[in-house]
Amino acid sequence: MKTILFCLACCINITAQTGEINDHRKRSLIETGSYLNFSAEKVKQSPGFYIGYWYRYPVDETKTHLEIGGNFNYSNSLYDFDYGKKGLFYRVRSQEFIVNLGARLVKSYPVRNNRIEWVSELSFHNLFFDGKGIPSDEAEQNDNQNTIHIDTKLESVASLKIGQGIRFWRKNIGLGIQASYMPYQLWYRNTVPKDFNSFSVETGIYFKF
To answer: Which long-range contacts (CB under 8 A, 24 or more apart) does 71-74 make?
Structure first.
């Protein structure tokens, strides 16, 4: 009987280790979901969608790992504000295009056959908008008529994105929610209005492979 129990314990241990090894080999994470970005400079608020890719580093002995990657976000929410550039102000009415690039520190907590992760994110949050009517820097510096210049008619403001979230995993599929804050006024005090700082709530589904 003791021999049978010992063999059973060994089998369980080997299975658990194999599962952990397979989980560690799943270094890629694809995520997609919906978000709401709250800003006082919006005249129309609509949910947006995002999609992203993150590389997962191996989990250490404290059940913590690092993720490096980024997301693309879009919403037809409408901004309406005065954008400052070189001492002049231009009226902007534009939808929302966002690119995030950064890092996440993830702490894992096993719960029976599932897993809960606490996520701390620090990334560069880049908001792009329609810059029609705003002179581009390249156009002002380009005096050579033989040089081809492509004007994308886009302007941008950047900020840090500071986020805290939680994810629930069952095998290789997860669900999560995160709250984030973007203090644009850190770098753009003379470019965007004083109340331009914003926060967002994001809900997503995640796939490890």
So the answer is: 71/31, 71/98, 71/99, 71/100, 72/98, 72/99, 72/100, 73/35, 73/37, 73/48, 73/49, 73/97, 73/98, 73/99, 73/100, 74/48, 74/49, 74/50, 74/98
